[in-house]
Amino acid sequence: MSLNDSLQARDALAVVHGLTNLSIHAKRGASVMQSGKGVWVQDIHGRDYIEAMSGLWCIALGYGNERLADVAHQQMMELAYYPLTNHKSHPRVIELAEKLLSMAPVPMSRIWFASTGSEAIDCAARLTWYFWNALGQPEKKKFISHQLAYHGNTIASASLSGVSYAHNKFNLPLAGFLHVKTPHFSRFADPGETEDTFSDRLIADIEKLIYLEGAHTIAAFL
Ligand SMILES: Cc1ncc(COP(=O)(O)O)c(C=O)c1O
Question: Of 66, 119, 160, 193, which has fewest CB within 10 angstroms of its CB?
Fold first, then answer.
């Protein structure tokens, strides 16, 4: 067995992959990438691929970006990490928050930093509950999101996601996480429907759901 093959075998024995069918994975093994430059990544067999997803949309500036690597190195040497809990902060996080506020497409008052999209969505759900509790409306607990939406794989974000693979066998969604039809005209319109009548039908479904659940119980729509 070559070193490369052994890396794939070691992956199968040591790593659990999210959003991956584990029994298929045990047979096919992982696609193991070892380097990247610009839009390209290369696997352990030396094959090049265009990484059209930019990682998970987080390598938008390309692989092997020297400016980013230099700044990261400098920051690691200056202050590798510092928490934001219990009134603590540091210059870079303040600068980044100000920058994001100046770029936000709608007025925002503050930035909450999270490490992943799933964590950000969980925090949004948690802060939504906190918000309604603070306003004295603790019964506003339910969330509405779309069938087929993907919001992440933590407990709340997977509940908000409208995909069966995130729910089945994971005891999800949690109670109070409601899903409405997917606003995807070309896939889900009835015969003869226009985009307008399709939208009207979906909006009517959301209104009916809110009416049946009680508007006073709805915390947010994602
Ligand atoms: C719209 C959306 N929200 C949340 C997430 C979850 O982000 P993460 O994978 O960083 O947890 C994703 C990830 O694909 C996403 O596309």
Answer: 66
